Amino acid sequence: MFKTLSAILAMTAMSPAFAQSSGLPVDGTLLSGWREADGLHMSGLSLDLAPGWKTYWRAPGGGGIPPRFNWSGSENLESVDVRYPVPKIMVQNGLTSIGYDSDVVFPLVIKAKDRTAPVALQAEIEIGVCEEICIPMTLQLTAILPAAGAHHAGIADSLENQPAQAGAFDCEIAPIADGIRMRATTAGATFNAEIAVIETATPGVWVSPSDMTQSGQTLTAEVEMVPPNAKPFSLARSDVRLTLIGDGRAVEMRGCR
Fold it and tell me: pTM of this prediction?
C-alpha cells in the first residue's frame, strides 16, 4: 500500500489537493487539513459555486439531489464522517429545498488505518447543482492528507457552524397502507424553526416533507415513511434524526422515545 502512496506523494508534493476543472457551475477541492492529537484527521470538501447556483444538504427537500460519496479508491483509510454546516431554506418554482447558495466547506472527519501515516484520499462525489434547473454532477477528486498537516480556517469555521445537538424527542408511530406515519414532538424549542426534517438510517426509505406546527416552545412534525416494498415496517427509534432549521440556525436531535 505505502509503495503506491509514496508514488502519489511524489507526484503531489507541490499541490496537496486537486480542484475540479473550471468552466463548470461548481469547482470542488479536497482540503488536506490537519491531524488531531487523537489521530483523527480533519479534512474538508470545498465547493465553489458559480453565481446564482446552489447545491444541497444531506436531506435536500422537494426539488434537490442529495450528495453521495464514494471513497473506495483511497489508501490508509478506515472511515470518513461527512459533516454538514447549517443549511439554508430555499424556495424556487413553488418547491422548498435545503442547501447552500454560496461557497461551502463540508468538514470530513477522517479515521486512518495507520494514524501515524498519510492518507491518500480518492473521492467520487455525486452532487446536484441548480440554477433554473437542477443537474447532477460527478466530481473526481484526490488529495494527500499528511500525518501532521496544517490548520485550515475554512474547515474550522464549518466545524463551528454545525447544528447544535439536543437530546431525544418523543414520537408516535402508526402503520399506514404503504409504510408508517410518525408524529414527532419536542418541547423547549429555543427558536422559531421554519422547517423540521425527519430522517431515518433505514436504507431506501422515502420520507415525506414534514407537516410542522409550533405553539410556544412545543413543536410537532408529522411525516410518512415508505420503504421500497411499500408496506408497514419496523423502525429503529434510536436511528431517527430530527433537525429543526430556521433563522440561520439548526438544532439536531437523535433518537425518539
Answer: 0.87
